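@channel sequence for tomorrow's demo:
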Amino acid sequence: MKKNIVKTAATLTLGMMIGSATIAAAAPGTIQAVLSKFTFVVDGQQQTLKSKPIVYKGTTYLPVREVAKMLNAEVSSFDNKVKKIELKTTGSQTQTNPQTGSNQSTAPKLPLKLKLNETATQGDMTLKVHSVSYTNFIPSEPGATSGLIAEKGNKFAVIQFEATLNEKPTDRFAWGALDFFDHAIIDGKKIISATSHEHNNLLAGETKTIQISLSLPENTNITSVAFRDPSKNSIFGTIDL
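structure tokens (generated this afternoon):
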């Protein structure tokens, strides 16, 4: 019986203790424990452990990797020297609490539902969509007679918005106009290609009006636009038209 217990304990190198907030490293030696079998139900679905839990002095120890997998998480790091195990949940971000120095997981922020001429703020970014208009001619500058003319059978969709981003870019000095564009839906198709004819770079903390354009067939219109938060590399919000 003792050989079986020692062999099983060796396979459960990583253990999770249920019913106590403290994990203790046992000194070398022999412990008296029993193997047990539990039925696990996660969100109404029954789950099965490959390794049997160990019960020691009324406390049940579970294999961390298997339990984490049940909860859509993973063991991101294991440091045996400092006896530290870190878990990372799917789709979560880990932040450090400046007061306690501890890590806490926060769920990712969902894209906002944007509306024309309404200011939306999330995190360090603020966005206001002014207009989405259509034209066959984009002047090189306001009031100019020279500029871009749409090809025959096509037109330009001009998206104008106001942006503020307090986060500094890590690989450049300023944010570009196209950094804030993710995609547009045109005739049921996702279009990720756009053009900016203005050299209107945005420094951290600045607020500027930005204009980008897309070329599309004359008989189609944009049904929605998704804007990015470039500092988070995620979609900030979408606007339906």
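heads up for whoever presents: The mean pLDDT is 78.
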